[in-house]
Design a protein that fits this description.
The complex is a heterodimer of chains A (431) and B (288).
Chain A lengths: L3 E13 L5 H15 L11 E2 L10 E13 L3 E6 L5 H8 L7 E6 L3 E4 L12 H11 L4 H15 L14 H13 L5 E4 L8 H17 L3 E5 L3 H7 L2 E6 L2 E7 H11 L8 E3 L6 E3 L2 E10 L9 E2 L4 E9 L6 E8 L5 E6 L14 E9 L7 E11 L3 E15 L28
Parallel strand pairs in A: 2-3, 4-8, 4-9, 6-7, 7-8, 14-20
Antiparallel strand pairs in A: 1-3, 1-5, 9-10, 11-13, 12-13, 13-15, 15-18, 16-17, 16-19, 19-20
Helix pairs in contact in A: 3-4, 3-5, 4-5
Chain B lengths: L11 E4 L9 H6 L1 H13 L11 H20 L9 H23 L1 H4 L1 H4 L8 H30 L13 H25 L2 H15 L16 H5 L2 H14 L8 H28 L5
Helix pairs in contact in B: 2-7, 3-4, 4-7, 4-8, 4-9, 4-11, 8-11, 8-12
Classes of the chains: A alpha/beta (431), B mainly alpha (288).
Chain lengths: 431, 288
């Protein structure tokens, strides 16, 4: 039976909005006056919900509100959420950097937090001296570091510069050295922020591999915070989704990611677009109603899109005459904005549409499985008449995420490079 | 999952509740290597990339003593009793400097380390403690200079000598630490939210030196109308006492009851400082 190693009970964290000034001094005095009379802090009763984009109406905000969760020994718990959902605040509380306004966190093990690599590096000290300093700051003893220092130097790949002050290092080398120290920590519970996306490609691969070893091979309990669904999917056994400072979902990683992707429309992008009267797009009697990219497997439209699932493209338009020759195009782009390909309905059978009248038209298309590699993809939508006249062009609105296939622990992790992930048939023979 | 409440043996809890004094010696002991590395960092980085290296630890007190001797003794004609003026100033400055760096070093604990404290937990008290220890090393180095001049002046016939009181040296050192650390911790907590104080501090410490009997013996001010400022300043007694135990001269205010009171004041200041420090370390990162 697994044992609860960390338990968060009703933790909340309140922050003050705006500047510290004479107003805050008045509040401090008022708070102190309430306390000496044995009364409750008057400012705990107020506080807005942590919704970044809403207008600030109160002076206090609950960055986290009534968070409850438990972590079992050996578990890798992912914490996902939009910017400002309270992820980093939660990490700060867990790593004892600051204490919660209310509630308790109970732990059975030593927590080491990795909110940043190279914490406390002193530029004047050499690489080796900084390994000792940084290691000690992260909670290692000198004897532990002595035992590992050669391994750390080798992992960092900075052997030549190890007795040079770190102020002479390139930023990448500093990060490598910092991560190398952190990767050799052996706490009971490791708290990791998104520090994996550092260094060059070679080092990223090394870092993710090491994270994998830590969590699966060594049976360490890890709390992992990230926006990167791909690394969450590959590292975590369970995940919680934070929305506006509250736990919105807790459960399996796949379900949590799906829940998160439903929420993740922060940057104005969405995988499901519904246009109503307020933001309608129309031109020459054609109106775009909705466009969606979803999981294309039967009855699984709400599941996240994986490499090995089909993808359903859907688009609904309103047309003033069914006889018009309207075509739809889905243009796919990678996350740097390069156009990958465009799929359109030009060749779709449409004879049965030869009817008079007007109304809605629904276009559906299937992208075969194992086409896209894991990652984020952007979609532009075109509505075209007579194969040449572009009526509507919708860009910078749609995005979807492809997550890796479900993997067992022990399989090779890490992303294979490239945009596509197609199975090719190969053979080798003696002719 | 634990259903049995008796089985809930947690290693630690993080909550809003706090004890008034929360000094976990066991934890500080666990982090002793960090303490030593901080000490090493503070000492080593000062003279990295300098030609004179650790010699700089000597130069500053020597120059200040020369200037004080010129201004206060040659020009202002302040009498230093049996002790040669230069030696008098050197000893006062060495002691005062130690108190000053303890105070200044500790008072900037939270602001100077905000980046570090915002990312990693370790017992925060380690930082002021490391300042006290690393400055103790510098103090030790400066004491050897003092010893050198001491021997030189004796050989030239100055009427000064060590006495039984010299054994009280560690007591006076501890008093300087208690006052420096205590006041420093109080100031460090005040500066986290309201930064005005840190701007005042440099100015304040400079003034404090002149009312703490550093460049003059206490008796030089007994008949002055501002004498009470010095008479009620425990630091003045510490500085005066420090010179007394070294030179066995100028014993005007040296009695055990007074020292006991001053020690008591130091302990109270330290405890108040520690209590405030404990209160602040939990959440200062939200307000700094």
């Amino acid at each position: 039976m697994s044992k609860t190693i960390l338990k968060a009970e009703n933790i909340s964290k309140q922050y003050r909005l705006g500047l510290v000034g004479t107003g805050s001094l008045m509040h401090d005095v008022n708070r102190w006056w309430h306390r000496i009379r044995g009364k409750e802090d008057p400012y705990l009763k107020v506080g807005a919900v942590n919704d970044r984009s809403a207008k600030a109406t109160e002076e206090y905000v609950w960055a986290l509100k009534d968070i409850n969760f438990e972590v079992q020994e050996g578990e890798v718990l992912g914490i996902i959420g939009k910017n400002g959902a309270g992820k980093s605040t939660l990490l700060k509380l867990l790593s004892r950097v600051t204490s919660p306004t209310t509630g308790t966190i109970k732990s059975r093990g030593r927590i080491a937090s990795l909110l940043e690599v190279g914490t406390g590096f002193h530029p004047e000290l050499t690489g080796r001296e900084n390994i000792y300093l940084n290691g000690a700051i992260l909670g290692m003893t000198k004897a532990e570091i002595d035992a590992k220092v050669d391994e750390i130097i080798e992992f960092s790949g900075c052997e030549m510069y190890i007795d040079t002050p770190t102020k002479r290092y390139s930023s990448g080398m500093t990060v490598r050295l910092g991560f190398a120290v952190a990767a050799h920590l052996e706490p009971d519970i490791l708290v990791v922020d998104e520090v994996l996306a550092v260094g060059d490609a070679e080092f990223q691969k090394k870092a993710i591999g090491k994270m994998q070893d830590i969590s699966s091979g060594e049976g360490r309990t890890v709390l992992f915070v990230s926006h990167n669904m791909v690394s969450v999917q590959s590292l975590c056994t369970r995940a919680i989704v934070l929305v506006n400072g509250k736990v919105d979902f807790e459960g399996s990683t796949a379900n949590a990611i799906q829940e998160y992707l439903k929420e993740a429309t922060t940057d104005g992008y969405s995988s499901k677009l519904f246009l109503d009267k307020s933001n309608t797009v129309k031109n020459k009697g054609v109106e775009l109603l909705s466009a969606q990219i979803t999981n294309g497997e039967p009855d699984k439209a709400d599941d996240p899109i994986r490499i090995d699932t089909k993808i359903l493209m859907q688009c609904e338009i309103l047309v003033n005459d069914y006889n018009r020759k309207i075509n739809i195009g889905f243009q796919f782009l990678d996350d740097s904005g390069n156009i990958l390909f465009t799929s359109h309905t030009r060749n779709a059978a449409r004879d049965h549409l030869n009817s008079k009248g007007n109304g809605k038209l629904l276009f559906k298309g299937i992208v075969p499985e194992k086409l896209f590699n894991e990652g984020e993809f952007y979609v532009n939508i075109f509505v075209v008449e007579d194969s040449s006249d572009v009526l509507i062009k919708l860009t910078d609105r749609m995005k979807f995420t492809v997550i890796p296939m479900a993997k067992k622990f022990g399989e090779r992790m890490g992303k294979s490079v490239g945009v596509f992930k197609t199975d090719f048939e190969w053979m080798v023979q003696i002719p | 999952m634990n259903t049995n409440p008796n089985n809930e043996s947690w290693l630690y809890e993080i909550s809003a509740k706090r004890k008034v004094i929360d000094l976990n010696f066991k934890e500080i002991w666990q982090y002793r290597d960090l303490l030593m590395l901080f000490v090493k960092r503070d000492i080593v980085t000062v003279y990295k990339q300098t030609v004179l290296g650790p010699l700089w630890f000597f130069i500053q007190p020597l120059f200040t003593s020369v200037i004080f001797t010129l201004v206060f003794n040659s020009i202002a004609k302040i009498e230093t009793g049996l002790v040669p003026a230069f030696l008098f100033n050197l000893s006062g400055i060495t002691a005062w400097n130690y108190f000053k760096v303890c105070l200044m070093g500790t008072s900037s604990t939270f602001r100077a380390n905000a980046g570090l404290f915002g990312k990693v937990y370790f017992p925060r008290f380690i930082v002021p403690l490391s300042k006290v220890i690393s400055n103790l090393v510098k103090f030790g180095i400066q004491m050897t200079i003092l010893a050198g001049f001491y021997i030189y002046y004796i050989s030239t016939g100055a009427d000064i000598a060590l006495s039984g009181y010299t054994l009280l040296f560690p007591v006076f050192l501890l008093l300087m630490i208690l006052y420096g650390l205590g006041a420093g911790m109080i100031i460090s907590t005040l500066t986290t939210k309201y930064r005005d104080i840190s701007l005042l501090l440099t100015f304040f410490v400079q003034l404090l030196m002149y009312v703490s009997a550093v460049p003059y013996p206490m008796k030089a001010l007994t008949n002055s109308s501002y004498g009470w400022v010095v008479a009620y300043n425990p630091l003045a007694y510490i500085m005066e006492g420090f010179r007394f135990i070294l030179f066995n001269d100028g014993s005007l205010y040296f009695d055990s009851l007074r020292i006991l009171f001053i020690a008591l004041g130091g302990v109270v200041l330290f405890i108040v400082g520690l209590a405030l420090f404990n209160r602040t370390e939990k959440t200062f990162i939200d307000t700094v």
